[in-house]
Amino acid sequence: MHPADFVFPAAGVKLPPGGLVLQTSDAAQRELESLLEFYLASGLDCFLEEDAVDRFALSAELARAQAEARTSAPARPAAHSAPIQSGGPAQQSRPQAPASPTREPSAANAPISGGAFADAVVPDTEAIHAARDAARTAQTLDELKSCLQAFNGCNLRLTAKNLVFADGNPNARVMIIGEAPGRDEDLQGKPFVGRSGQLLDKMLGAVGLDRSSVYIANVVPWRPPGNRTPTPQETEICRPFIARQIELAAPDVLVFLGAASAKTLLDVQDGIRRMRGRWMTYDCNGRKIPSLATYHPAYLLRSPIEKRLSWRDFLSLRQKLSEDANS
User: Fold this and answer.
1) Torsion of CA 9, 1, 304, 302, to 10 degrees
2) Domain-located, residue 219
């Protein structure tokens, strides 16, 4: 059901026993539509259980149970004490303490088997090194995609439905890089196919480009749960793969959508307002690639007044491509 099909009661209006009021003000209806859109953007697109499940507690319980299983040893029978042969009367009359019975492992302490987080890993430096080693082995983009599909060092793969590797033309002169996929991208396995992607297509079309003339990817190829921001550890683990992807695609120009992707790959700390519209350089193993940062389409959907600045950025991109073609 579309959010527009719902009607929300105005503030202060009591609900009848039957549920929501069916007719109310337009402002209240827009309020509900915004709330439902927020839930969808946060990944809450269906109800799986009546009660909330604390996944953090489950993963902590899993780690604790696995640690106990590794360190526990078979219980040894209690040794029988030898009779006391000497000592004072107090020692001879002291009763022997009964041997403690062997405690059977309870269901609560039993190792947890299976489950969505059974293959979870610790996102430490070892995972980062494993990502670097795996990315180096790829000699083509297809091999790199296979490496990512087989890579188990990033826990985002456990909650994502699909790997979102790339879309467009890998031989294009322009490579566009975002931060991470969203709900629609996760469902289809392609980057920028939701509302942000539709706006990006219009922005590209305005300067004579389309998906056949650009190559699109993300720094993080798996959707974070609820469209949350990827953690620094998750970004750092995925960074070797996007760096190798840039190297194999060998574009003439890089376009970063949003500050996150630009900061990750350009090692800068400026905000997007200071970075956008300014040509920078990405060092790809000694090859200097001109790079341009601009606003993310998702931000432009929330702040349409900033589209004028993104339009200037894309005009600058078109001019750069034209200059390089004529040189």
Assistant:
1) 70
2) yes
Cα separation of 116 and 128, whole Å? Answer: 22
| pLDDT (tens digit per residue) in 69-85 | 877 755 555 444 444 44
Interatomic CA distance for residues 299 and 196, integer angstroms: 9
The DSSP bridge partners found for residue 279 are: 292
Residues in contact with 203: Cβ distance below 8 Å, sequence separation at least 6, in sequence order:
297, 310, 311, 314
- The 3-state DSSP class for residue 72 equals coil
Whether 201 and 211 have beta carbons less than 8 Å apart is answered as yes
**Tokens 């009359």 appear where?**
93
| pLDDT tens sequence across 91-133 | 444 555 444 444 444 433 344 445 556 678 888 899 999 999 9
Amino acid (one-letter) located at 259? A
> pTM for the whole thing?
0.67
Domain that holds residue 231: 125-326
Tokens of 237: 């683990």
| Pick from 56-65, 90-99, 259-268: least confident | 90-99
Report the alpha-carbon distance of residue 41 to residue 177 in Å, rounded: 20
Judgement on whether residues 322 and 186 belong to the same structural domain of the protein: yes
Looking at the structure, tell me whether residues 135 and 273 fall in a common domain: yes
